[in-house]
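Lecture 7 notes: from sequence to structure.

We start with a single chain of 197 residues. Read the sequence below before looking at the structure.
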Amino acid sequence: MKKILLYSGLALSMAAMVSGCKKDDDNNNPDPTPTNPYYFNFKANGTAYNFSSATPQYISSDENVIGGFQETSFLTYPSISLSFKYDHHPTESEVLSLAGNTYHFDGSYPNPYMEFDGGSTNGSEQYYTSDTTTNNLSVKVNSISYVKTDTTIFNIVDVYVINGTCNAFLQPYQTISTYPFINVTEGSFNFLISRVK
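Now the structure, written as tokens:
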């Protein structure tokens, strides 16, 4: 009888130890589907677009340009790009100094530049910003911060996340375009851009 009580007591003690050491799966595991923080939302001639691809598309072939593309999903159309053109290869400190400033499409450096591609194979849905002195057409950079260094097919690049707002006037690349222009309003973005190292 003592052996039965001893074994029963040992079994209860072991069960208590095992259950006391068990991980609480509900509290310790991260969310299996984390949310994507990257987006570029805007209206084009009144039509709302919400681009939120989690896969970055860098502008990495020109060392005098920093920028990137945002899409609805990886390598699909439509897409929009935002870049800043310099008359030289910008340093990291120059890139970080974009934060807190508003840039106009007036041809001065750093010059903001936007492109919209609706995906038509004949180029009728490709638009780009034209320089203008209109003050309400601009890119305001709220923040920019370094994320990582990455390798592309062209170059090694430093990658930054840029956050801000924009309004722009885009003209067509070709005269056969669907619309004579695109008026981009209520733009807000938080996405990845790159600078050639």
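The chain has three helices and eleven strands. Keep this in mind for problem set 3.
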